[in-house]
Write a structure and sequence with these properties.
Blueprint lengths: L6 E6 L3 H12 L6 E6 L2 H9 L5 E5 L1 H13 L6 E5 L6 H10 L4 E4 L5 H22 L16 H17 L5 E7 L11 H18 L3 E6 L3 E7 L8 H10 L3 E3 L2 E5 L2 E6 L7 H10 L9 E3 L11 H12 L3 E10 L5 E11 L5 E3 L4 H6 L3 H22 L7 E6 L1 H4 L4 H12 L6 E6 H6 L1 H14 L2 E5 L8 H4 L6 E4 L1 H4 L6 H17 L2 E5 L4 H10 L3 E3 L9 H9 L2
Parallel strand pairs: 1-2, 1-3, 3-4, 4-5, 14-16, 16-17, 17-18, 18-19, 19-20, 20-21
Antiparallel strand pairs: 6-8, 6-11, 7-8, 9-10, 10-12, 13-14, 13-21, 14-15
Helix pairs in contact: 2-3, 4-6, 12-14, 14-16
């Protein structure tokens, strides 16, 4: 705002002496051309605000301020609110933070009023508000999103920033952010681009309909963020589960009911978040998005958007030309750091000369159904290699090889028989082979997963569950499965910083593992603190760059020679 700009400020409520005093102070800020208008109560103020041209509002006491703020939100009025009230000497900081969290730009005490204080609080709020609005454009010029009725991104960030501040001031105050990703909904043979846009908006509309004890806003083109505030530490966030369940109910579309694959990421608040964006980013990093984007319907079998013909053709040729290879990341005993085994990680030696990790092509392999033959190739290659290492390193007879299974592999009725055949062909003992299945796959395909796990167990191989705690899979879903262990996801391990808050989810997984009589492995261990905490919590095995990166076959020989 330029100094010469006119600045209309409403002063609402308060005694005549207080209003007069504030008016006198504001008149002294001459360089900004402040023009003051007095309103006796919130109703009069809101009527004036609706006519436009007001830069900011000064409201006396909590009640008047709350009334004005509700009206500002309901009418989509762009004007920061500064509340002036008596502040308790017991906890004035907390009272200020509560006002900010409720939507006020600032909260001042009667006893601290002066022209200088008003100048900083009022004009600073106006300039910041206008500056952000100008940078973001017209889409954030109101408090409410016009498409869904949710808060705008800007309004959400302000409330989230206030929650962060309050958590720093109050040791028992907690907040959490839930990030909802709709990116898996995209045009396909079933949905047009218009359909997709409408469905994403309907996710927001449903979110707005259930918003009672939380606030929510759209973020970017495909996301929504939900802010939960004021719950006790360690409490299961049932409200977040309720949001998930509600948004995952079917959506009506062309006389059918669609089940949308939505990603959800929950990050509990901690005061050291630098700002609102940092808190949102943490939640986004926790998002679990289906590896195979799908759209479910009642009336049709599961349909998957096909991979492009080019990618599918390249993958088929890569299989024929044997362009795939396997690297091996060591798994160690956390206590002794001696080798326990390796995880087999597939790589693609692309004709362009680059070696591409699985993350670059595994989704396309799933979409084109090539994941099954590619998976067989990887399993057999890893088995042959492990058989060679058993022969070479007789002092390590219990080394095992671990491999991930995707949903299509779990659903393959021939998988167990093929594994039995490979064990006979390679000469590798079955107990040296460990398969990892995602908890979400078990929850989605419980009957098929049980048959697979029971078949592999009968053959003598072991099965571990990965990504437990990142889906709706529960201990009850796993009871009766002949499992051997849980793999603790790297997203939980990376958050370990020595505090109780960052190890809470891992404790939950350890408790579930104990209830089922399973071992545990922590993946993505990058520092000694993470290893120490996992060992202290009872985790037996570890994997990550603290111990070793993924190795080539030649590097594994050198690694095992020193073991």
């Amino acid at each position: 705002m330029r100094p010469a700009d006119a600045c209309v400020v409403l002063v609402v409520g308060g005694s005549s002496s207080h209003a007069s005093e504030v008016q006198t102070m504001l008149s002294q800020i001459r360089s900004y051309g402040v023009s003051v208008e007095l309103c006796a109560h919130s109703t009069e103020a809101l009527a004036r605000l609706s006519s436009g041209g007001v830069a900011a509002v000064l409201a006396f006491d909590d009640y008047v301020g709350a009334s004005v703020q509700r009206g500002i939100l309901e009418q989509d009025i762009l004007a920061p609110l500064v509340v002036i009230q008596e502040l308790s000497s017991d906890d004035p900081v907390a009272e200020r933070l509560r006002q900010r969290e409720a939507g006020a730009a600032e909260c001042l005490a009667f006893t601290e009023l002066s022209p200088a204080v008003l100048r900083v609080a009022l004009l600073g709020s106006i300039e910041t508000h206008r500056g952000i609005t100008q940078m973001q454009g017209a889409d954030v010029s109101s408090v409410l999103d016009p498409d869904t009725g949710l808060f705008t991104t800007l309004a959400m960030r302000r409330r989230l920033a206030a929650a962060i501040d309050r958590s720093e001031a109050e040791s028992d105050y907690r907040y959490a952010t839930l990030y909802i990703d709709t990116a898996a909904i995209h045009p396909s043979d079933l949905l047009s681009a218009t359909d997709v846009a409408a469905l994403r908006t309907r996710v927001g509309l449903r979110l707005a309909h259930i918003a009672n004890d939380f606030v929510a806003a759209p973020v970017g083109e495909t996301g929504y963020v939900v802010l939960f505030r004021g719950f006790p530490e360690g409490e299961d966030l049932g409200a977040a589960d309720s949001v998930r369940r509600e948004l995952q109910r079917p959506y009506d579309h062309d006389d059918d009911q669609l089940y949308l694959d939505l990603g959800f990421g929950l990050a509990r608040g901690r005061g050291r978040d630098a700002n609102a964006q940092a808190a949102i980013d943490r939640a986004r990093c926790e998002v679990v998005v289906p590896r195979v984007p799908r759209l479910h319907t009642h009336s049709a079998s599961e349909r998957r958007p096909p991979a492009t013909d080019v990618v599918a053709s390249e993958l088929a040729q890569a299989l024929q030309r044997e362009e795939f290879s396997v690297t091996y990341q060591p798994i160690v005993d956390i206590q002794s750091q001696r080798p326990y085994g390796f995880e087999a990680l597939i790589r693609w030696r692309h004709p362009d000369g680059e070696e591409r990790p699985a993350a670059d092509f595994i989704n396309a392999a799933n979409d084109s159904e090539l994941i099954v033959p590619i998976g067989y190739w990887c399993v057999e290659a890893a088995m042959r290699q492990m058989a060679d290492w058993h022969s070479e390193f007789e002092h390590l007879p219990d080394l095992c090889i671990s491999m991930n299974l995707s949903a299509p592999q779990v659903l393959d009725p021939l998988f167990v028989e093929r594994v039995r055949s490979m064990l006979m062909t390679t000469g590798l003992k079955a107990s040296a082979v460990r398969f990892e299945i995602e908890a979400g796959t078990i929850a989605d395909h419980n009957k098929e997963a049980r048959a697979l796990v029971e078949g592999l167990s009968a053959a003598g191989s072991k099965v571990w569950v990965e990504d437990y705690g990142l889906s709706d899979c529960t201990v009850d879903d796993l009871r009766g499965f002949p499992l051997d262990g849980f793999k603790i996801d790297r997203r939980f391990v990376s958050r370990i910083d020595g505090t109780e808050m960052t190890s809470g989810r891992i404790r939950h997984i350890m408790t579930a593992a104990s209830a089922l009589g399973l071992r545990t492995l922590g993946e993505g261990i990058e520092n000694q603190l993470q290893a120490n905490v996992l060992r202290w919590l009872g985790c037996q095995l570890g994997q990550g760059y603290l111990y070793e990166r993924p190795l080539s076959v030649a590097e594994v020989y050198a690694y095992l020679a020193e073991a």
